[in-house]
Amino acid sequence: QVHVVESGGGLVQAGGSLRLSCGASGRTFSSYIMGWYRQPPGKEREFVARITWSGDRYYADSVKGRFTVSRDNAKITVYLQMTSLKPEDTAVYFCYADNSITTYWGQGTQVTVSS
Fold first, then answer.
1. What distance in Å separates the CA atoms of residue 77 and residue 97, rounded to the nearest whole number?
2. Which is it for strands 3-7 and 18-25: parallel, antiparallel or unpaired?
3. Is residue 51 within 8 Å of residue 44, measured between CB atoms?
4. C or N: which end of the chain has fewer Cβ atoms within 10 Å?
5. Average pLDDT over residues 95-105
6. What is the DSSP string of 42-98?
């Protein structure tokens, strides 16, 4: 069975930083794309960032220059370093692992940015 689990969310003031972590178990994820989506209150889930097994990174325009996605294939973990946080970054952040056939999702972690 595959498990994807996020951690590291919380409450932070605008301008602050947080780092989210996401661990995966149950399969070999080194060849998977891993990344993050988020769902702001009352809105649809939206793409944030992803990283390929070889380290290619892609970001939503809204987070470019502020967020950094990275991964440790040995630990089967993906990270999202978030800096210069804004109130509009408030959302539930979901980690995923995608092998182009199946996408595995975590349960989500809440990030709240106060103004």
1. 10
2. antiparallel
3. no
4. N
5. 90
6. TS--EEEEEE-TT--EEE-TTTTTTEEEEEETTTTEEEEEE-S--GGG-EEEEEEEE
Per-residue CA distances from 15 to 27, 58, 82, 98, 104 (Å): 37, 23, 10, 31, 31
In b/e form, how buried is each residue of 26-42, taking b as 16+ CB within 10 angstroms? ebebeebbbbbbbeeee
How do the residues of the chain divide into helix, strand and coil, expressed in percent and rounded to 5?
5, 55, 45
Task: Write down the residue that tokens 């995608």 correspond to.
Answer: 98
Average pLDDT over residues 47-65: 96
**Residue whose token pair is 């325009």:** 61
Of 50, 61, 60, nearest to 100 (Cα)? 50
Would you state the structure tokens that stand for residue 103, as one six-digit string? 């996408």
Note the pLDDT tens digit of each residue in 22-48: 998 877 666 789 999 999 999 999 999
pLDDT in tens, 79-91: 999 999 999 999 9
